């Protein structure tokens, strides 16, 4: 069973923090960080990041990311999660060897069409504007934010892409990033575990579920876990 989970949402919503906790807790779990696909690798010239009419480097637009390369990496995982795990130093747990989870972490996860349908779960972390701006001001990015970047570029692009995502009907599970790290972790871990349980019950041979009270084609009637909240599992 393969599950691709998106940990998306706004800058400084807490995506990396949550992702790292989930990575430690979930079996056979790999991660791909969208920030690794900026067209400006560390220690190389940043000439692929356009400068806008506002004078700011346009970091927060999809064109600044090599999304084809990110998609290739996801497809490498899909074609052999075992091999991908080994190559990324994740040791496969024998007792859960048929379960593989891929976390995608990033701020523009749901704006690149070829990726959108690959997710089994799409989470979207948000915090209020003031909190976001404050958290961002405390960060040290490899390329420091020039003065005015947040209000002039980062926040307007966040609003634009979020509006597009919603207008396109992409279903996400919103998470309140002002909750404690522990609460967010528990909430998402439980939801992913329920997805796994539902998936394994759906794929169980029908002989394991002789009584099908929900009628043909509706899956196993022994479902005990909370049903998936927002969209079917499709991987
Ligand atoms: N639940 C939380 N409550 C309070 N602070 C948090 C929480 N989660 C993360 N933080 C803090 O907020 C800041 C951003 O967290 P993190 O790096 O996880 O966010 P992010 O969404 O990955 O950011 P970006 O992708 O923009 O770098 C960090 O200083 C982190 O310690
Ligand atoms: N990771 C980087 O190289 C980098 C460089 C410049 C800006 N950023 C910011 O990262 C955020 C996404 O995590 C975006 O809001 C970028 O502005 C990242």
Descriptive account of the structure:
There is one protein chain. This protein is an alpha/beta fold and 235 residues long. It has a single domain (2-208), classed as Rossmann fold. Helices cover 37% and strands 12% of the residues. The protein is built from 7 helices and 5 strands; from the N terminus they run E-H-E-H-H-E-H-E-H-H-E-H. Strands 2-3-1-4-5 form a 5-stranded parallel beta sheet, sandwiched between helices. The radius of gyration is 19 Å and the shape is globular. Residues 208-235 have low confidence and may be disordered. Bound molecules: adenosine-5'-triphosphate and Nicotinamide riboside. Residues 11-17, 107, 135, 138, 177, 179-181, 184 line the site of adenosine-5'-triphosphate. Belongs to the uridine kinase family. NRK subfamily.
Instruction: Please identify which CATH superfamily we are dealing with.
Output: P-loop containing nucleotide triphosphate hydrolases
Based on the coordinates given, report the CATH architecture: 3-Layer(aba) Sandwich
Number of helices: 7
What portion of residues belong to β-strands? 5-15%
Compounds present?
A: adenosine-5'-triphosphate, Nicotinamide riboside
Distance between the termini: 9 Å
User: Are there runs of 5+ residues with pLDDT below 50, and where?
Assistant: 208-235
Percent in helix? 25-40%
- Average of pLDDT: 87
Strand order of the largest sheet: 2-3-1-4-5
In one word, what is the shape?
globular
Order of helices and strands: EHEHHEHEHHEH
Sheet with the most strands? 5 strands, parallel
Kindly identify the CATH topology.
Answer: Rossmann fold
- Which CATH top level class fits? Alpha Beta
Secondary-structure class: alpha/beta
């Amino acid at each position: 069973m393969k599950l691709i989970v998106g940990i998306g949402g706004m800058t400084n919503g807490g995506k990396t923090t949550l992702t790292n906790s989930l990575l430690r807790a979930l079996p056979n779990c790999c991660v791909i960080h969208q920030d690794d696909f900026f067209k400006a690798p560390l220690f190389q010239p940043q000439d692929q990041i356009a400068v806008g009419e506002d004078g700011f480097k346009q970091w927060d637009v999809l064109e600044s990311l090599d999304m084809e390369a990110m998609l290739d990496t996801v497809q490498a995982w899909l074609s052999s999660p075992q091999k991908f795990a080994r190559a990324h130093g994740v040791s496969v747990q024998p007792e859960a060897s048929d379960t593989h989870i891929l976390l995608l972490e990033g701020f523009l996860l749901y704006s690149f069409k070829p990726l959108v349908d690959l997710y089994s779960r799409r989470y979207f972390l948000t915090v209020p504007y003031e909190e976001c701006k404050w958290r961002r001001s405390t960060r040290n990015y490899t390329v420091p934010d020039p003065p005015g970047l947040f209000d002039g570029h980062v926040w307007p692009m966040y609003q634009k892409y979020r509006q597009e995502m919603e207008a396109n009907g992409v279903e996400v599970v919103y998470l309140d990033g002002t909750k404690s790290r522990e609460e967010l972790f528990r909430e998402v871990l439980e939801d992913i575990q329920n997805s796994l349980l539902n998936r394994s019950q759906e794929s169980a041979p029908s002989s394991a579920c002789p009584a099908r009270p929900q009628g043909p084609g509706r899956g196993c009637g022994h479902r005990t876990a909370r049903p998936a909240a927002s969209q079917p599992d499709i991987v």
